[in-house]
């Protein structure tokens, strides 16, 4: 890889990571960009995942300092995420490079359509009652569905991760009654575990380009930390606007890619 190509990747990873703290879906751009620069499909997936560990940590720190994250409430979701993500990462080593490209392409379309068409109303969240002292919310049928979705999404997150945080954010809002701010903060912490276990599996499979991964990882950490600093100061209205704007841009990009 030339210095110019590396510089392009750094710019792409920086801007997508800064925005991705709020919106998620940055892998829908970063991984295809790595494909375009001739990086092997499996190496691209694995190295991007390695960088996501740094991004997730950088994005979570401001929320944790602010006290937005309830670790006790997230504990069962973290366990499910670790198991599911390990399964997803293991699948990558078993499929062909062509299959990975197909998965990435389909994921881009599905995630964008899901985000554009999903109902933003929070009627489901009314059935989840959180106690004032911070204890876990009571179980309901919607929460059980939320746990199931979290596990299935973790498998996808370990396999590719493109749009994983975006859908997870919507899942936490719909099934666990979280606000946008709480959901964004929670997904940052969850993504630390998802990316870490997937990266461990990829390292075992020998798929991670450590030199490139460290460079991109540091870039993502700095960008995510900066992005999260702004996110913690934004109200719900602005978070919604940024979320929807990013989805619109992703939709335009997807249509453009299909037209080429």
Compile the SSE list and pairings.
Layout: H1 3-23, H2 27-36, H3 41-66, H4 71-92, H5 97-117, H6 141-159, H7 164-176, H8 180-205, H9 210-231, H10 236-259
Helix pairs in contact: 1-2, 1-9, 2-3, 3-8, 3-9, 4-6, 4-8, 5-10, 6-7, 6-8, 7-8
What is the share of helical residues?
over 70%
- How many helical stretches? 10
Gross geometry: globular
Major β-sheet, in short?
none
- Ends apart, CA distance between termini: 25 Å
Classify the beta-strand content into a percent band: under 5%
Count of β-strands: 0
Written as H for each helix and E for each strand, in order along the chain, the element string is: HHHHHHHHHH
Low-confidence stretches: 120-138
What structural class do the secondary elements suggest? Answer: mainly alpha
Instruction: Report the average pLDDT across residues.
Output: 80
Q: In angstroms, what is the radius of gyration?
A: 17 Å
Number of discrete domains: 1
Can you walk me through this structure?
This protein is mainly α. The protein has one domain (3-259). It is 78% helix and 0% strand. It is built from ten helices and no strands. The longest helix has 26 residues, at 41-66. The radius of gyration is 17 Å and the shape is globular. Residues 120-138 have low confidence and may be disordered.
Short description:
By secondary structure, this protein is an all-alpha fold. The protein has helices at 3-23, 27-36, 41-66, 71-92, 97-117, 141-159, 164-176, 180-205, 210-231, 236-259.
């Amino acid at each position: 890889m030339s210095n110019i190509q590396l510089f392009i990747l750094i710019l792409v990873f920086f801007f997508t990571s800064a925005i991705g703290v709020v919106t998620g879906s940055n892998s829908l751009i970063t991984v295809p960009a790595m494909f375009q620069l001739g990086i092997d499909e499996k190496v691209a997936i694995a190295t991007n995942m390695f960088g996501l560990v740094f991004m997730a940590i950088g994005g979570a720190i401001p929320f944790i300092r602010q006290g937005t994250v309830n670790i006790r409430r997230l504990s069962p979701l973290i366990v499910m995420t670790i198991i599911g993500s390990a399964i997803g990462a293991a699948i990558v080593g078993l499929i062909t490079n062509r299959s990975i490209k197909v998965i990435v392409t389909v994921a881009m379309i599905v995630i964008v359509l899901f985000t554009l068409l999903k109902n933003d109303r929070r009627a489901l969240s009314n059935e989840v009652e959180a106690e004032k002292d911070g204890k876990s919310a009571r179980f309901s049928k919607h929460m059980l569905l939320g746990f199931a979705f979290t596990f299935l999404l973790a498998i996808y997150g370990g396999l590719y991760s493109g749009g994983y945080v975006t859908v997870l954010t919507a899942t936490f809002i719909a099934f666990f009654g979280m606000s946008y701010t709480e959901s964004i903060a929670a997904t940052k912490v969850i993504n630390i575990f998802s990316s870490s276990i997937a990266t461990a599996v990829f390292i075992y499979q020998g798929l991670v380009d450590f030199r490139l991964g460290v460079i991109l990882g540091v870039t993502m950490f700095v960008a995510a930390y900066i992005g999260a600093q702004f996110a913690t100061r934004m109200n719900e209205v602005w978070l919604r606007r940024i979320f929807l704007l990013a989805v619109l841009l992703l939709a335009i990009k997807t249509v453009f890619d299909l037209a080429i």
